[in-house]
Amino acid sequence: MTQPGFWREVFDHLGAGVAVLDSSDRIIAVNPAAEELLGRTASAMSGQDFHVLLHRHVEDATLPQEPCRLLTALTRRLRARGADTLLSEDGHLIPVTWFSDPVTRNGEALGMIVLMSGDGTDREAAVSLAAHVTALEDLTDRLALAAEIATALAQTLDTEEALARLGRLLVPRLADWIAIDLRTDEGVRRLAVIGPESRDTERDAWQGPLPALDEHSRSSLVRVLRGGDPVLMGLGDIAQPPDSPLAAVQTGFLQAIGATSVLITPLGTVRRVTGALTLARTGAARPFDSAEVSLIGDIGRRVGLAIDNTLRFGRQRQIAEAMQRNLLASLPQPGRLRLAARYQPAPAGSQVGGDWYDAFLLRDGATALVIGDVVGHDLAAAAGMAQLHGMLRALAWDRTGPPSAIVDRLDQAVPVITNVPLATVILARLEGSDEGPWQLRWTNAGHPPPLLVTPDGRAEFLEQGQGLLLGTGLSDVSRPDATVPLPPRATLLFYTDGLIEIPGTDLDIGLRRLRRHAAALACHALDDFCDQVLARMPPGTADDVALLAVRIPAVSE
User: Fold this and answer.
1) Spatial separation of the C-alpha atoms in residues 294 and 272, rounded to whole Å
2) pLDDT tens for residues 180-190?
3) Tag placement on the chain: N or C end, fewer CB within 10 Å?
4) What is the pLDDT of residues 469-522, one digit of tens each?
5) CA 396, CA 2: separation in Å to the nearest integer?
6) Would you tell me the crossing angle of helices 123-154 and 159-170 to the nearest 10 degrees?
7) pLDDT for res 200
8) Which string of b and e fits 420-447 if b means at least 16 CB within 10 Å?
9) How far is it, in rounded angstroms, from Cα 397 to Cα 90?
């Protein structure tokens, strides 16, 4: 019903005449009923000043400005009604009852709507037309609410955030309290109870697991959860003795909040009911009516589908995160070299990405260091990360050449063996002995540069060795290698872009912030260094973060 075609049908087939005016009171649209009433075509009226064109005496003189109620309503943008005469194309006066209403957006008047009925000056006709307009406005408000709910729920994949948004839209606009129950494999669970802010402390007592469905119960909530139609409840229904444990919980809840009118509607579709939405009002002067059943039923379908999507996403996210954590191997601690790593999943409501780190000993005694990121934020990205992780380990173990040669070979294999579209990676060899000296040899396939922090608090990004990211198909372009000496007690930090990318800011700002914080932490123990780097970088990223840090031994140790 919210599609443009629906409104076109309403406009064209409405029994009352409708004229839509712009901010200058010029006619921009009229419906067929207005054409018939005024004896003028839409094209002839389009662009004309409504008052000047239609509100004249037969002698073609405009009506006096001051006493004209219609002109006053148009000029002052008032909701008003009256009975008057308008001029037809052939010059005769037509008695009409009219109703004006401003069109606004965010408090700004965009124009006017004038509804007209050819019922003359009959007071009852004016009242009838006003009631008709009020009903249309009410319908518009309700449809707008349904559209707002659909938009709000589509903007998040986090269940708690979706319920919070729903609560802000429904309470107190449509109900004083709402409760959302979901059917799960474990039974029925009340996911949320939302009511007046002054009674927030009461909500937790009613949330959580509910008693099992009783197949013989005839209570309203049980019937809806089992796939029944929406149910309206008055004071008498609320006071009925419960016939099952689940019904007892519902009755206790409704009586505790002082419900006087209740509407319970299924969540989900006719074929698959996933739960129930209970809306309750506590004022006797505003009970739910049958006209609201259709609107709330539509809301229930939207809410059910949205919650189902968020829960499905949550399960997928848990699988991806578990896979990712299980694939992040434990770090070696060769000799006096110290390594530490952290993996921080994306915040709730965001999808898990393909970030990973790795470190392992090579056949020639060097330590391989890896940081990478598969493009994408879903289970496929996590699976692609697993494929690259294993392939790179095997290639690095099998070959003793420079990092660039190994990454070149990996790049050639990616489109043949995996479904990974694009990925970034740094492969480095850490070479040296406990007594030193140490050096880093690496190649960078499109990844943020490593950061070298010296014990005296200087921090430098290692921007050499930059090459194309994996998956471009340009395998004929050779990758460079770079080498840098590593001073004693220096810290080497590899990271993924989730650490430095903050929405709405330049990437250079994130890099400068990381360098500043890392330099200040140069003398901290390695584990504390990693924890503090994560804590000091501002929140706001929707991506996961992987860190790999290495501390070079001191010569005197």
Assistant:
1) 18
2) 888 877 888 88
3) C
4) 998 877 667 789 999 999 999 999 999 988 998 777 788 889 999 999 999 999
5) 58
6) 170
7) 66
8) beebbbbbbbbbbeeeeebebbbbbbbb
9) 95
